[in-house]
Amino acid sequence: MNLPPEMVARGSEEERLAAGLDPARLPRHVAVIMDGNGRWAKGRFLPRVAGHRAGVQSVRETIEGSARLGIEVLTLYAFSKENWKRPRAEVDTLMGLLREYLRRERQALRDNNIRLKVIGRLDDLPASVRAEVTEAVEYLSENDGMQLNIALSYGGRAELVDACRRMLAEGIDPASVDEDTVDRYLYTAGCPDPDLLIRTSGEMRISNFLLWQIAYSEIWITDTLWPDFKLRHLLEAITAYQGRERRFGGTSSSRSEQSAAAARG
Questions:
Q1: What's the whole-number average pLDDT of the chain?
Q2: Selection from 29, 37, 4 nearest residue 18 by Cα
Q3: What is the average per-residue pLDDT within 134-145?
């Protein structure tokens, strides 16, 4: 694959990695747990909020890189339900950074033909943030390129609870409920499940993120802290993904037989 010269320098590791990717085998949906901002700041004897500010550049580079590669959906875990337990000053800073990002970056998102959806319990957010989110979603609504999902006040268990509540409220017949039914009531309704889940900072857990959707996702974990995560790391993750065999509970032979049958029509 070729990426524009403004993104990758000639002869760089990024150019080498991009050239080795198979465009036909890209993950449709990439989900990212952006972790390590606090540790990045602590390692530099800076306040935690400095790490969050530094992480904005990684957000920008990951979004643009994913869009240029042709990823259909990118979901970023920005703020969990549990994050409300953090010190008030840190939470206020994070909310301010979010508003600033949406206001400052929405033109770039429009230029890159990116759509925006915010998933989670949005009623938990301050009114000023909800207003900024609504305005940004509307501003990008006519785009038809990559869908960017930003998870805010999000929890995987809460998502499943909310899906159940909506089904009950609408009087869904219990006997008719199957996996497709549940999919339709999730925050991510209409999106393919993530093919690739990336976690930074080396932590070996999924932190209540997309619990239903990542049942068969390939997981790639890097020790790199989020503010240091760049296009090269995204390309490394996709390269690793393309080197794996996805069997979805079957065997190599059964997958091959299914593929052959599909090819025969």
A1: 93
A2: 4
A3: 97
pLDDT at 256: 52
Q: Which two tokens stand for residue 150?
A: 């930003």
CB 151 within 8 A of CB 188: no
Residue burial 8-19, b: 16+ Cβ < 10 Å; e: rest: beeeeebbebbe
The DSSP code sequence of 61-105 is: HHHHHHHHHT-SEEEEEEEEGGGGGS-HHHHHHHHHHHHHHHHHH
Q: In what order do the strands lie in the sheet with 115-119?
A: 115-119, 147-154, 73-80, 29-33, 196-199, 218-221
Is 70 exceeded by the pLDDT of residue 69? yes
Per the DSSP assignment, residues forming a β-bridge with 150 are 76, 118
**Residue 32 and residue 75 in contact, taking contact as beta carbons nearer than 8 Å:** yes
Q: How far is the C-alpha of 32 from the C-alpha of 207, rounded, in Å?
A: 11
| Separation CA 200–CA 118 (nearest Å) | 21
List the domains of the chain with CATH numbers: 26-244 (3.40.1180.10)
Contact 102, 110 (CB under 8 A): no
Q: Is residue 200's pLDDT more than 60?
A: yes
Catalytic residues: 35, 83
Q: Any residues with CB less than 8 A from the CB of 231 and at least 6 apart, and which?
A: 7, 8, 14, 61, 62, 65
Q: How far is CA 263 from CA 24, 26, 82, 204, 256, in A?
A: 16, 20, 46, 38, 11
Q: Is the pTM of this model over 0.85?
A: yes
Decide: helix, strand or coil at residue 54. helix
Query: What is the distance between the alpha carbons of residues 133 and 245, in angstroms, rounded to a whole number?
Result: 38
